[in-house]
């Protein structure tokens, strides 16, 4: 069967998501999921009918939350589908390239590879910021530049001035995508206001993290109306299932937003607890993080990761040397994790 597949597909290794890696335990801090399992009641009827391609209730609700107009919002099956749509809409297979800055989120590379689009990488600087001169020197053939802020897995926010410089540099040449999957934890750092100035800016958002709806698969792309119109040409005819719209609209209601705000605060407190608790352990470096996770460096990251795994504490190993990414889960999960790691280094 493999031989029948496209050559590019044969060569592909699927994205090793936290879920695919598996694990067994009662502390799940490996996928940056929310610890809150909020309840929803389905109110929909008429499942015999197709959904709207871009349901107005959902688009309007997210536009209001993000502070943009409805023509600037596209909804899709998670932010991951937004990544795919941007590459498919703007990159010619075999000719064009995307550019991204590792260490960062893995799906930019996987999506490009799937569509036969070349991948150019310009590593982040030593303080995990954009290397603008190197990006500028590598823009040949690049149609889409991906920037993740807060960056997964390092947790830091990209300098706003650098993003503006990047937008200036790429004008009339390439699309700049700012992946703001975690921006709800630090809304003051959003680049959404730059949409008014830069028609080639696209911002990715999701309900998977701060809205505690990873299983719903609902994301958004914010951009100029012209850019959104291009994406609408390549999106599937019925991308958002009716029950998804129903629940997403509840999450974005006044009550839903109030609950989200409260839970974001709680998770931020738990992140601070993790940071404080782990920082006190000799040899452990906790990097400042603005999402719902922290990148932590241990004397031996692999050993710590494996020992935690065996103890039923599932963390995420990272490409950074001795780095382990730890989600800010419930207070109980964070306490168990800090206790385990403290004991691990004191035994
Ligand atoms: C989780 C994540 C996404 C994917 O979000 P979905 O809406 O669940 O597809 C995109 N980008 C980054 C950086 C993420 O961490």
TrEMBL record:
Its EC number is 2.6.1.9. The modification N6-(pyridoxal phosphate)lysine is found at residue 209. InterPro entries: Aminotrans_II_pyridoxalP_BS, Aminotransferase_I/II_large, HisP_aminotrans, PyrdxlP-dep_Trfase, PyrdxlP-dep_Trfase_major, PyrdxlP-dep_Trfase_small. PROSITE patterns: AA_TRANSFER_CLASS_2 (PS00599). Pathway: Amino-acid biosynthesis; L-histidine biosynthesis; L-histidine from 5-phospho-alpha-D-ribose 1-diphosphate: step 7/9. It comes from the Bacteria. Keywords: Amino-acid biosynthesis, Aminotransferase, Histidine biosynthesis, Pyridoxal phosphate, Transferase. Its cofactor is pyridoxal 5'-phosphate. One of its GO terms (molecular function) is histidinol-phosphate transaminase activity. Residues 41-340 form the Aminotransferase class I/classII large domain. The keyword Manganese does not apply. It catalyses: L-histidinol phosphate + 2-oxoglutarate = 3-(imidazol-4-yl)-2-oxopropyl phosphate + L-glutamate. The keyword Amino-acid biosynthesis applies. One of its GO terms (biological process) is L-histidine biosynthetic process. Pfam families: Aminotran_1_2 (PF00155). It is an enzyme of class 2 (transferase). Belongs to the class-II pyridoxal-phosphate-dependent aminotransferase family. Histidinol-phosphate aminotransferase subfamily. Homodimer. This is Histidinol-phosphate aminotransferase. It comes from Vibrio palustris.
């Amino acid at each position: 069967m493999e031989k029948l597949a496209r050559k590019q597909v044969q060569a592909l290794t699927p994205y090793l998501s936290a879920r695919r890696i598996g694990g067994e335990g009662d502390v799940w801090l490996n996928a940056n999921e929310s610890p809150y399992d909020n309840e929803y009641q389905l109110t929909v009827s008429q499942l015999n009918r197709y959904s709207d391609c871009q349901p107005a209730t959902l688009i309007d609700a997210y536009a209001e939350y993000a502070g943009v107009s409805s023509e600037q919002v596209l909804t899709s099956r998670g932010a991951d589908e937004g990544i795919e749509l941007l590459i498919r809409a703007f990159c010619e297979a075999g000719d064009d390239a995307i550019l991204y800055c590792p260490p960062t989120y893995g799906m930019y590379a996987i999506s490009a590879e799937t569509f036969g689009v070349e991948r150019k990488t310009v590593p982040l600087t030593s303080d995990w910021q954009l290397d603008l001169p190197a990006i500028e020197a590598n823009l040949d053939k690049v149609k889409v530049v991906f920037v993740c802020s807060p960056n997964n897995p390092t947790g830091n926010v990209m300098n706003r001035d650098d993003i503006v410089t990047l937008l200036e540099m790429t004008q009339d040449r390439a699309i700049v995508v700012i992946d703001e999957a975690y921006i709800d934890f630090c809304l003051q750092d959003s680049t959404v206001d730059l949409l008014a100035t830069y028609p080639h800016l696209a911002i990715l958002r999701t309900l998977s993290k701060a809205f505690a709806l990873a299983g719903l698969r609902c994301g958004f792309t914010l951009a100029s109306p012209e850019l959104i119109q291009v994406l609408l040409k390549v999106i599937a005819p019925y991308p958002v299932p009716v029950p998804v719209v129903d629940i997403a609209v509840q999450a974005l209601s006044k009550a839903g937003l109030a609950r989200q705000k409260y839970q974001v605060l709680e998770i931020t407190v738990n992140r601070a607890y993790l940071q404080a608790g782990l920082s006190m352990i000799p040899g452990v470096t906790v990097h400042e993080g603005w999402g719902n996770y922290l990148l932590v460096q241990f004397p031996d990251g692999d050993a710590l990761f494996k020992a935690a795994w065996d103890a039923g504490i599932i963390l995420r190993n990272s490409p950074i040397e001795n780095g382990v990414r730890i989600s800010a889960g419930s207070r109980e999960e964070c306490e168990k994790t800090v206790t385990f790691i403290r004991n691990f280094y004191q035994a």
